[in-house]
Amino acid sequence: MRLTPTPAQTVGPFFGYALPYAGGEALVDRSHPGAVRLHGTVYDGDGVPVPDALLEIWQPDEHGGISQQPGSLHRDGYTFTGWGRAAVDGVGHYSFTTVEPGSTGDGVAPYFLVTVFARGLMDRLFTRAYLPADPSTLEQDRLLSSVPADRRQTLIATREPDGSLGFDIHFQGAQETVFLTYPNTPQFTGPVE
């Protein structure tokens, strides 16, 4: 007997219903002295904004420390947990209020780890948004320097005139974002309460 393949289940489009929560995009309050906005737009392979994606970021604090604080889903206004979740709006735009991450060690340029969930994806996608820095700092980063030179810019945020960090994500096409693979990663990881 010959079996016919059936479509696999994708990771969306239920994000607006089940996963966003109040304050998920605010890792720190806007009044925090080191607050910065990380924002951008998620685009599909045709360059059209994706209206129902969800992003998560993980990051160290401004000194490069990795938070061990519980309570990621219950923002209290002062505990930095290093994790946030934001849904895009109807035109594919997302925004986080956070602090600029510090380097976690020698030869590691500061970055945000970004995870993207969207309809049509068989699994979430991982990428990094590096802080814009002098080229020598970025060249020393082991992961970034392993990416072909003509593709590295897709992993580097841009500093905007207002001081915010812009980071667009492109699923495919000429500006396709470099996505990362982590062996032995379970299907879903998130904060444990």
TrEMBL record:
One of its GO terms (molecular function) is protocatechuate 3,4-dioxygenase activity. Keywords: Dioxygenase, Oxidoreductase. Its EC number is 1.13.11.3. It is an enzyme of class 1 (oxidoreductase). Belongs to the intradiol ring-cleavage dioxygenase family. Pfam families: Dioxygenase_C (PF00775). Residues 14-103 form the Intradiol ring-cleavage dioxygenases domain. It comes from Nesterenkonia sandarakina. The lineage of its organism: Bacteria, Bacillati, Actinomycetota, Actinomycetes, Micrococcales. This is Protocatechuate 3,4-dioxygenase alpha subunit.
